[in-house]
Amino acid sequence: MGDDSAERTGYRRSAGSPRGEARRRELLARVTDDLAVNGLVDFSLRRAARAAGTTHKVLLYHFAGAEDLLAQAVFALRERRIGNALAAMAGGAQQRTLAGRVRVAWQTLRDEEAGLRRVLDQAVGLTMYDPERYADLGRGSTRQYLNLLVSFCPEPWPEPRKREVAELVLATLRGFVVHRLTSDDPGGADAGFAALERALEREEAAGD
């Protein structure tokens, strides 16, 4: 990312009025759509302003700076990914089990649009490249996905057990994503997922 200096110029930011909030959401949606198409490389306030059809000073009225805008746009893209997964599993009988829900989530992740996948992979890469500066991108990702995966677990399970299983699933799926990007065996991640699915079926069959 570039062009961070404008963050320190002290522009007054939106106070959150209904009109200001509507404008902020409009600008954020335009920037989010630009990220989905063009990725995070060379992201800056000026690039975001061009995409939003405004100036970087206007963006600084509504957002705390380039990193705040980036974090909110990436959050919105993750919500898009989560929404796609929930839509895919709506109404299906097989999605009544933990393993079935995770299967649909994996299939949605595996088959999602290339732009969405690329920019969210880049966000993870930023967190790994500069964890001090971009730690919130990674932590935000974990919070969003864990909330979803906890909701997949059987309702009677105690919360610590839901959390443990959700952590396992999240870490494993992240590993599969990296494997698909770096392996010359395109079926390897799917074979690994089949093993995860069997483990989840056994976990659920074990009951409380």
Automatic annotation (TrEMBL):
Keywords: DNA-binding. This is TetR/AcrR family transcriptional regulator. The keyword Kinase does not apply. GO terms for molecular function: DNA binding. Residues 21-81 form the HTH tetR-type domain. Gene3D superfamilies: Tetracycline Repressor, domain 2. It comes from the Bacteria. InterPro entries: Homeodomain-like_sf (IPR009057), HTH_TetR (IPR001647). Residues 44-63 bind DNA. PROSITE patterns: HTH_TETR_2.
